[in-house]
Amino acid sequence: MRVAVLYGPRDVRFEERDTPRITEPTDAVIKLSATCVCGSDLWPYRGIQAVPEPTPMGHEYCGIVEEVGRGVTKIKTGQFVIGSFFASDNVCPNCQAGYQSSCQHREFVGGAQAPVLRVPLADGTLVATSDAPAPDMIPSLLAVSDVMGTGWFAADAANVKAGSTVAVIGDGAVGLLAVLSAKQMGAERIIAMSRHEPRQKLAREFGATDIVTERGDAGVARIMELTRGVGADSALECVGTQESMMQAIHSTRKGGYVSYVGVPHGVELKGEELFFAHVHLHGGPAPVRRFLPKLIDLVYSGKINPGKVFDLTLPLDQVAEGYRAMDSRRAIKALLRP
Fold first, then answer.
1. DSSP state of 318
2. Are 183 and 209 within 8 A, CB to CB?
3. Distance (Å, rounded) from C-alpha 220 to C-alpha 145?
4. Closest to 264 (Cα-Cα) out of 184, 170, 189, 137
């Protein structure tokens, strides 16, 4: 089969690789209904994160189970399933605490920009839908495998609740879905930080009440102005840079909550500055598996439509164009059809 392989900065190739097969008794092999390019894929694509060798790309997926190993008892062939970017057994102490992305036996699920994918620890990783979804529902179900689950974790980790004032730093797919998540959790005021009109429009559709175009210290000052000098109850950092992290911390009221779900690059926190910020910090790789059942239910019930973040759809063999479009911000998120 042909898959997306990253060779180096801005060098994505669609080339022949072996079709995945069962290698462990706990594996499943699924035929993908859709996959996509993630904002985090742009770090190695831009050369900010080193790629030591040609690497199959992609970690967001949903599709039909074609085969399971002899140790798989819960997932069945023919089911439509969604999984997370980290495989987990869902039974270890970390999983039981709700942190499946730190499972003691976790494995990264890569190579999903392909027609077929092997998923380790299938019983703990995959969640089956009640029936075969309608085609127009598949983009939203794909979104819950990462960006919606990550946006939800951003809101959950930042203690968003009814009546909260929330600031969302980042207008990529995760940031936009963090807005949607905060709205679902009952936030009264949601301040989205964005300079791009199409993203601002979608943020408002998802529930943003205010748009702030400023960044850095100017962005903090604007949030303080909007909150009468108090700051947000919750700040959701969805980028992963030093500027975005400090903007989140400084935009939060004393005693407030900061979540960080953007993959960090060059982020360093000064102890004394953090000490006097007087905020709660919580984040990391989103435990998407914890939220999958709820998010699938929300999609099926029509309460959320996170698939709206996909504003570009391409056949899988045009995956390189998906990367280029997201890199140049011509697209929020590219959906790929195998």
1. G
2. no
3. 32
4. 170
